[in-house]
Write the structure tokens for this entry.
Amino acid sequence: MAGACFALSTLNANANLLTNGSFELGSFVNQGNQTMSLAAGATNMTGWTAVGRSLAWINTGNPFLLSAQDGNFFLDLTDYNTGAPFGGVTQSIPTVLGQQYTLSFELGSYTQRWGGPPVSILATAGAASQVFTDATTSTKSTWTPFSLTFTATGASTAITLLGSAGVQYIGLDNVSVDAVGGATVPEPASYALLAMALMMFCLVASRRFA
């Protein structure tokens, strides 16, 4: 009982505010090579909207010698194109005015096979924006973590990650947004339902052992 109640107390502080941060959910259609190309405006990936030129949603078993950082799916923000302009994704999340948050993500590269360095992503969270670059030469599918701290200016904040530099591969996976300092923040519906279930469990258990 104590473990479940502790989970309830920390749920809001630790839950990822983004939906489908590792791109595992949605209506994936294998168009060949365990890959699906998505044009700007596509909403096939649960929670996300494609922006920019186009991007590739890639599954395990692809022939490109590329692997996901988390789960089975990941993105290539170049799609099947070479060079700029690139694709990206965007999603709006609930935030608290004045609260600080950290946007984290993994940037993928394989420069020996697919070009670069540099390989870069432009990350934008509300008014905050920064280019993150992997400037190393990679001889295999490689993931590098980056993060951006921002302060919410309203009840919702748009999170956008767009390819910025690369040749034929700019990987993106495992995106998350968390409140800084463990503050209580608005949660997606799935977390709210889980919190309600845990609350009921704690209430019943506390009466039983009173």
Remarks:
- Helices lie at 2-14, 111-114, 189-208.
